[in-house]
Automatic annotation (TrEMBL):
It comes from Tepidimonas charontis. Belongs to the arginase family. Pfam families: Arginase. This is Arginase. Pathway: Nitrogen metabolism; urea cycle; L-ornithine and urea from L-arginine: step 1/1.
């Protein structure tokens, strides 16, 4: 399974030789705002935006992964100063502590899935916690843990959006498509399947986790930074019509254009969910992940990605997953993740007056 091992392409920035094609969807963009980040459909304003109240929700498990260690991710993010960094930007931070769930039994796959019962239990806990945070008007930040937890997180967000009649846009920042099924991958590791489960392809207990399945439709998802995809998974991604901005697209078009396309149509009625797998980043700057793939976004590309998301003012929920302190160097990757999350909440490189976009 490509999601469980490094890419061996000698040309890092072209790691997917037959790259996932992403149709250039031509859209009429508005005139450039003063700071030059045109995003279709987003209202711009000089009004001050009240900072959100966030709920930090730890899910310390690596039950869906192929390597141990992601269970230590939540504490590494706290040690790296996530709470203080967000508070510095005026964000009200509530740390809800860690969820509890079954231990990782570290067993082989059964009927195509590893640790399915344990993965379901963890995702139910995540679903309840994220749903409770949203119901209380909080912006939930899920501290993973491996990426299988996105099933519970995004299912809760989708349920919240359906109840409010609100549109949902999911940005999937990842080196991997995570669109495998038990028929496509021999490993059975569920951290390679969460997006497929969310779109209706997977075990019923995960597909219908929120009481209604599928949780999302492929057209609600934008995948960014993809560069390691199994052959069968690639065909399946094409069949489902996922909108993918792989690393070749970013190389050719640049991160600014990529994000303009990924965010096009986001408006005041859109809930924006970011599922940030730390292996989205190039391993030269972020070594602390279990499935490193060369050729990912640089520090500046990642910062621009986050700043343009922040510019929309529509961020409503966030996953930070697959951070593996056991493979890190002096918590370097956790510190970088905190730095990037700061950019999602207002830190900017801009040295000139910065208009903001209206949240409400």
């Amino acid at each position: 399974m490509a999601g469980d091992g490094p890419c061996h392409n000698p040309w890092p920035r072209a790691c997917v030789a037959a790259s996932l094609s992403c149709a250039w969807r031509a859209r009429a963009l508005p005139a450039d705002p003063p700071f030059g980040l045109p995003i279709a459909g987003v209202t711009m304003t000089n009004d001050v935006v009240a900072p959100p109240t966030v709920a930090l929700i730890g899910a310390p498990t690596d039950v869906g992964a192929g390597a141990r260690g992601a269970s230590m991710g939540p504490e590494a993010l706290r040690v790296a100063g996530l709470h203080t960094a967000l508070a510095h930007h005026g964000v009200v931070v509530e740390d809800w502590g860690n969820l509890s769930g079954p231990a990782n039994p570290w067993q082989p796959a059964v009927d195509g899935y590893r640790h399915l019962d344990e993965v379901v239990q963890w995702n139910r806990a995540v679903h309840r916690a994220v749903g409770a945070a949203l119901a209380q008007g909080r912006l939930p930040i899920l501290l993973g843990g491996d990426h299988c937890l996105a099933v519970g997180s995004i299912s809760a967000v989708a349920q919240h959006c359906r109840a409010r009649g609100q549109k949902l846009r999911v940005l999937w920042l990842d080196a991997h498509a995570d669109f495998n099924t038990s028929a496509l991958t021999p490993s059975g590791n569920l951290h390679g399947m969460p997006l497929a489960c969310l779109c209706g392809f997977g075990p019923a207990a995960l597909v219908h986790l929120g009481g209604q399945g599928p949780a999302v439709q492929p057209q609600q998802v934008r995948q960014i930074g993809i560069r390691s995809v199994d052959a069968g998974e690639k065909r399946f991604v094409h069949e489902q019509g996922l909108e993918v901005y792989d690393m070749r697209y970013i190389d050719e078009m640049g991160m600014r254009h990529t994000m303009e396309q990924a965010l096009a149509g986001v408006d005041a009625d859109t809930h924006l969910h970011v599922s940030f797998d730390v292996d989205f980043l190039d391993p030269e700057i972020a070594p602390g992940v279990g499935t490193t793939v060369p050729g990912g976004p640089t520090y500046r590309e990642a910062q621009l990605c986050m700043e343009m998301i922040a510019d929309t003012g529509r961020l409503g929920s966030l996953d930070i997953v697959e951070l593996n302190p056991a493979l890190d160097v002096r918590n370097r990757t956790a510190q970088l993740a905190v730095d990037l999350v700061e950019s999602l909440f207002g830190k900017s490189t801009l040295m000139r007056e910065h208009q903001v976009r209206r949240r409400g």
